[in-house]
Structures are given as structure tokens and as C-alpha cells.
Amino acid sequence: xxxxxxxxxxxxxxxxxxxxxxxxxxxxxxxxxxxxxxxxxxxxxxxxxxxxxxxxxxxxxxxxxxxxxxxxxxxxxxxxxxxxxxxxxxxxxxxxxxxxxxxxxxxxxxxxxxxxxxxxxxxxxxxxxxxxxxxxxxxxxxxxxxx
Length: 147
Known about the structure:
Helices cover 56% and strands 3% of the residues. It is built from five helices and two strands, in the order E-E-H-H-H-H-H.
């Protein structure tokens, strides 16, 4: 006979309740890993695809870098949510550091691609995108007044 009575959420050592996610932790990392692969693929191209009329705008490459890393930052924050019992601000910081380090390795990778070069300004835009992207899910989480 199976006991079907509802159970109270588990409580961590810090007294916070921990809800169990139906998604396995390894699977929560999949979107971030896939998106990092997309960024790597685009960085491997000597001539990445240009987005039609947007390519005529000044600074469109910076906008593209920001958007790529904005998405990566958000996905990293969501993936880092697998670290149960951690403060959201620590999860944010870890996600941003991972985004910054990935941006650094991406710029280094571009230095080996013909027709591409390493650019500190691109890396700074990557850092800004990752930190802003991770900030959005941080601010949208339930109980956000507990940073």
C-alpha cells in the first residue's frame, strides 16, 4: 500500500524550505550548454551571418554580443538554481562569473579563427549581457525580497 498523504517541503540546515524540482539537475544545465555551443559555433565562423537590415545599424555587433550573453546569463542563472539551499545573490554571482569566463574563452577562441580577432570591448559587452541576463530571473523569482 502506498502512502499518498501530502508531505511538507524539506527544510534545509538554514531553515529554508526546499522544493524538489521534477526536472533532474543535469537536465536543467542542458539549455545553457546548448546555447554556449551556439555561441561557440558562431565564433568559429570567419563571416558570421548578418541579420539583414539590422547589420546596417552602427554597433550591431555589440548588440549581438549583448543579446547572446544576455540569454546565456539567464540560462546559467536558471541552471545554477540546482544548487539548493544557496542564497539567490550567490547563485547570481556564480552565474555571472561563469558567463564572464565563457566570454573570455570565446574571445580567445576567436583569435584563432581566420578573419576574426580578440576584442576587449566585445568581452566587456559580453560581461554586461551576462550580468543583465542573470539579473532578470533573479528579480522575477518568488520571494525576491530575500536577497
